[in-house]
Design brief:
Blueprint (H helix, E strand, L loop, with lengths): L2 H16 L17 H10 L1 H5 L6 H13 L5 H4 L5 E2 L4 E2 L7 E5 L6 E11 L9 E11 L3 H33 L1 E2 L2 E2 L4 H22 L5 H22 L10 H26 L1
Parallel strand pairs: 1-3
Antiparallel strand pairs: 2-5, 3-4, 4-5, 6-7
Helix pairs in contact: 1-2, 1-4, 4-6, 6-7, 6-8, 6-9, 7-8, 8-9
């Protein structure tokens, strides 16, 4: 990573440390984790300029999103790059009445926005303010939709990479500290294999993000790879058995919930292209 990218990443990392993201989610609850402080801080750092930038700014957008994911902050600002949440099976993140949603169109490099007229809160698997959308107003055209799609894809890949990166670091530290039968977990061959596989996956994800990877294949790979890292992490924390130990569950919940919208968006785009 270049010195400029590294310096920018440190600035975003400092912001995420200053603006704590609360996690009030509980099974069966509806939560919305938007943070005005984080949005304002990102704006000061030039987030919106990066979103409107060209190919050269994509790596900066990606490393910023990576730091957001590493801290498990709200993905609201990543979602808003499109102008609104992807509408997937009538569900939308942060989908209150009056909010816009993104609707896939047959043109691969385009999409439209429509304003939510009616929606109902849904108890979802994470604090993403998910609503069931029952009525929309007329759709609107998006200025430079291709550029916004590219920026959103890039930032989403970065956010996934950040989630996965934290889990590998956390699981590795746990394996080095937790003892079993007089030795640390890190001495177990099965743990070493899982950590090695997870670390290799994360290295590839981070390198892709830092290069500004985008497109449907990059999105699909990031979502699937991040979930595989979550599985390895849970197995290590559970001494080769699943656990819901906090804060790991916060990251795996976020990865699963966000990937459900990303995968749904990909399916729509592919289905309309056929």
């Amino acid at each position: 990573m270049t010195s400029e990218l590294d310096e920018f990443a440190r600035s975003v990392r400092s912001l995420t440390a200053d603006v704590a993201t609360t996690d009030n989610w509980r099974p069966g609850s509806h939560c919305d984790d938007r943070s005005e402080g984080l949005t304002a801080g990102l704006d000061r750092l030039g987030w919106n300029d990066l979103v409107a930038g060209d190919e050269e700014t994509l790596p900066f957008l990606a490393v910023a999103a990576l730091e957001l994911g590493r801290a498990a902050t709200t993905p609201y600002d990543v979602v808003q790059i499109l102008g609104g949440s992807p509408l997937v099976q009538r569900l939308a993140m942060y989908g209150q009445q009056g909010r816009p949603v993104a609707i896939a169109t047959p043109e691969g490099s385009s999409y439209q926005l429509a304003t939510i007229r009616e929606s109902t809160e849904v108890a979802f698997a994470d604090s993403l303010g998910v609503h069931s959308v029952s009525a929309l107003d007329e759709s609107m055209t998006v200025e430079e939709p291709g550029k916004r799609l590219t920026a959103w894809e890039t930032a989403t890949v970065g956010y996934f990479a950040g989630l996965a990166s934290f889990v590998v670091d956390s699981a590795t530290q746990h394996a080095l500290e937790r003892e079993i039968f007089g030795r640390t977990l890190a001495h177990l061959e099965t743990v070493q294999q899982r950590l090695g596989d997870a670390a290799a996956t994360v290295d590839a994800l981070v390198l892709s993000a830092q290069a500004g990877a985008h497109g449907l294949p990059a999105l699909a790979h990031a979502a699937a790879s991040t979930w595989s890292v979550m599985v390895h992490g849970h197995m290590v924390f559970g001494a080769i058995g699943f656990t819901l130990e906090f804060p790991l569950q916060r990251y795996s919940r976020r990865a699963k919930a966000l990937s459900s919208f990303v995968d749904g968006w990909i399916d729509q785009r592919i289905g309309q292209a056929v």
